[in-house]
Each structure stands twice: as C-alpha cells, then as structure tokens.
C-alpha cells in the first residue's frame, strides 16, 4: 500500500504544483483573448517552422547520445536512440525527470544496452548541458543585465525590504517552486541510495559517466551540442513571429526569456507548466507587452509545444516497437 501511495504522490504532487502556479498566474486572465489569438491571430507558418526545430533538437540529442554509448561497446540503432529520446520527453509529462530513466530502458529492451551504463551516459549529457546553459546564462546576463535586475525587482526577489517580499504574491510562487526542487532532490538522493545497494551498478554508472573521454569524434559531439541548444532556442524564438505583438521583440529579448524559461523548467512540473509561464510572462511584460497578450502567448506556445512532445512520444513508442517487432 505504501508503494502505491508513493507512486501516486510522484504523479499527483507535480501536477498539483503546476496547477497551483498556473491558477495563480491566470486567476484574473481573459481566456477569450487567448481563444481569439489562437483562432485568428496566430501565423501558423512561423509556428510550424518553430516546431521543426523542436523535433530536430530531439533528433540531434539522440545522435549525440549514441556517440557516448559507443565507447562502452554499445551500438544501438540510431533510430532507436532518437525514439528513446521522444519517449523520454513524453514520459516526463507524467513523471517529471523519469524520462531519463525510461530512455535507458528502451535501449536495454531493444538493443541489449546495459541499463546502468547508459544511465551513466545520461548523467554525462546532463553535466554537459548544465555547462552550456550556464555559459548561455552568463553571456545573456552580461548583455541584458538591466532587464534581469528589473525582473528581480518586479517579482519581489530584489528584497528591498522584508515586508515587500512577504507581501509579493510571486514570493509564494517562488517558494512553492523551491519546495518542488527540494522534493526532487530528495527523490534523487533516494534513487542514489538504492543504486548503492546494488552490486556493480555504481561502477557501471561511473563507467558510463566517463565514456565522454573516449568519444571518437569530439568535434562532432560539440557540433551536436551546439545544434541541440540552437534548436532549443529557435524552437522558442520563432514563435515570436507568430504574433503581431511579439514579432518586434528581437533576438536579445528572446535570449532573456529563453534563459528564464530554461531555469523555470527545473521545477518538477509537467513540461515546466506554471513556472515557465510565470517566467516568460513576467519577462515579456518587461519588454512592453501587456499582461493579457503575454499570458496568451505563454498559454498558446506552451500548449502547442507540449502537444508536440505528446505526439513525438506516441510516434517514438510505435516506431521503436515496429522496427524491433522481432524482439
């Protein structure tokens, strides 16, 4: 019974957290404006073009992952790696951060790749991606420092006085986000403690982590990494051109919102729902977009991008099973 309760909480708590933040952000929102924009104010040519980059970011990630597996003596099909990435992102919609585990399970099932070793390569990938986002954040912060300071001030995180902080509604949104991250860290520590009890698993994970040292084509690995993050950015940036009120914002504004949104999705909610909306809306308002249009933008873009994740997950599950139907 305890296991059932724990599994239920792992699904329900992220949904509740995301739902609470969404409710707080959109509690006074005019949803008719979002409906009007979706039906009559969206340039679908630009929107579809942005989705192309969303798909390619997953494809490049699958190809890069295969590179890190090769030094371990694992040579899964390239398409299986991509399908596993599709499935992992869709899985994260149900159980945040579990997708990284699910994709290792796909290769273990269809390509006989050691689960623990492939999990180690996923850890390596996350370390590389963390370095990338820190570099992007640093450069963006230096280029747009006044905007970030205004963001901190508007959200009550500048702390000019204790009373102002405690009376800011965004303080409580941020508090719930921090609590969500702490809960995620707790489950990660539990996961690591479980692995330590299993003989050989930790060694295999470490071997997977160190696989980057023996990647044959480092320039190609770097190219894939640049393409992944470039696709992530253009997946978001090109959506600006889908709306008349956002098309003038420009590259630098997109970088600021991209960085803010990237950090927001660290909070364990389905596809960053709630924290991502909060970050993008607040930053878009700093660039002169009114609250209603900014809210509609976040709602439409996040909804469409989440739908893409779902469709790719379904495709990946069907495709990998058909390609490997003999297994």
UniProtKB/TrEMBL annotation:
Subcellular location: Cell membrane
Membrane protein topology class: Multi-pass membrane protein
Pfam families listed in its UniProt record: LPG_synthase_TM (PF03706)
Spans through the membrane: 9-26, 46-63, 127-149, 169-189, 218-237, 249-267, 274-290, 296-318
Keyword Membrane: yes
Domain of life from the UniProt record: Bacteria
Gene Ontology CC terms: plasma membrane
InterPro entries: L-PG_synthase/AglD
Keyword entries, A-Z: Cell membrane, Membrane, Transmembrane, Transmembrane helix
Keyword Flavoprotein (UniProt): no
PANTHER family listed in its UniProt record: UPF0104 MEMBRANE PROTEIN MJ1595
This protein's name: Lysylphosphatidylglycerol synthase TM region
